[in-house]
Amino acid sequence: MDEPLFGGISRREMIIERFANAFIISIASATQLAALVQCVRTGQFLHALLGVCTALFAAVEVRLVNWYRRGDLEPSFKYIIFALGFAITLLCIVANLYFFL
Known about the structure:
Order of helices and strands: HHH
Number of domains: 1
Radius of gyration: 16 Å
Shape: elongated
Strand content: under 5%
Structural class: mainly alpha
Number of strands: 0
Helix content: over 70%
């Protein structure tokens, strides 16, 4: 097995990354489900498109976290990954507010 390029990551960082990954997947899945329900309910396909966009952003985030965990990305990417996770969370909150208010 190859060594990570920039050394291993600590157990604490691994737990934080797994929690962030699970949180992003769960909130994006809930938003996707809400988008599909609202699309069927109202007949506006814009809701489904917004749900697809959140799912695609979440997929990018998950892939970046996996690359970071394997050691393929520099440690400075950690802050970009957390910023993207915050942006996705905010996007999902705004999308759910748009669907239900």
